[in-house]
UniProtKB/TrEMBL annotation:
UniProt lineage: Eukaryota, Viridiplantae, Streptophyta, Embryophyta, Tracheophyta
PANTHER family hit by this protein: HISTIDINOL PHOSPHATASE-RELATED, HISTIDINOL-PHOSPHATASE
Domain PHP positions: 5-226
Gene Ontology terms: cellular component: cytoplasm
The name this protein goes by in its record: histidinol-phosphatase
Pathway: Amino-acid biosynthesis; L-histidine biosynthesis; L-histidine from 5-phospho-alpha-D-ribose 1-diphosphate: step 8/9
Amino acid sequence: MPFSHHSHSGEFCGHAANTLAEVVEHAVQRRKMSTFALTEHCPRGDDDLYPEEAAQHNAASLAALFDAFIVEAVRLQQQVHAASSAPGAAQCEILIGFEAEWIRPAASTAIAQKLLAQHGGTIDFFIGSVHHVGTVPIDFDRALYERARRMCGGSDAALFAAYFDAQLEMLEALRPRVVGHFDLIRLFADAPDEDLRAAAGGALWPKVLRNLSAARGMGALLELNTSALRKGLAQPYPRLEICRAWMAIGGQFVLSDDSHGIAQDVADTSRPKAARFNLQLPQLESRLSLAVPPPKAAVWDAQNCKTPVDRDKADDE
Ligand SMILES: [Zn+2]
Ligand SMILES: [Zn+2]
């Protein structure tokens, strides 16, 4: 049964398509998802609007849009779960979450904490993602990627290093249940399909291993995110060598199509060919612990989710 732990809709995201109801209907009725997570982007501050948002949004309107997302997500979740009790009806666990940002450490942490405080009873988990380096988006378009690269000195190696350092900061501050598109920084790089063990003369690989170890230490799951394939990369996020390193330390995955509308279902895991996403990982199936999760198996426990600070204290005890 296919499943995805990461999705967006045009109703609540300026660079996506379709209403959330259409996205859910497509996932449940057409794709026969067994688990589908609604994980809209979290709100951002006035200085961090995407180009398509600048004309019509500010921090307050993005925050209101997110609140509206939660209301609609709950309505659809209840609708799907109620309908599933009918004989022969599609069975799909709808999870509600969000994709946290890491743009400015204090502000990004405050936004995630606010959402969890406000919607903690509703939110099942959140994805910790890094889409910015030095506050500049690195996956939005090539021009912005190149701007971020210039700010880091002009080389992909330096930008990658800064990205993985930002990711470690994000992991330690937010302690996400799911780590989003671990090596997203590859998207606009000069050699996007380069083996990260060899990239930059081997200088990046220790940072990759360091971040995997941090994620594993906090019990996070890595998403196997197929949006990379949709965008023309040879392998999903993360690449094969990272998947192997993650499995070597006992890590587990969730699967994500990161769809921004119903046209983007490259990740359809009902197609056998797509099952391993171009990865030569025969053991992968055994690591997909959430393939058919029992209800709420993907839930980050409330203590972890709501207050990362409390979680840190618990670790010390
Ligand atoms: Zn998006
Ligand atoms: Zn993302």
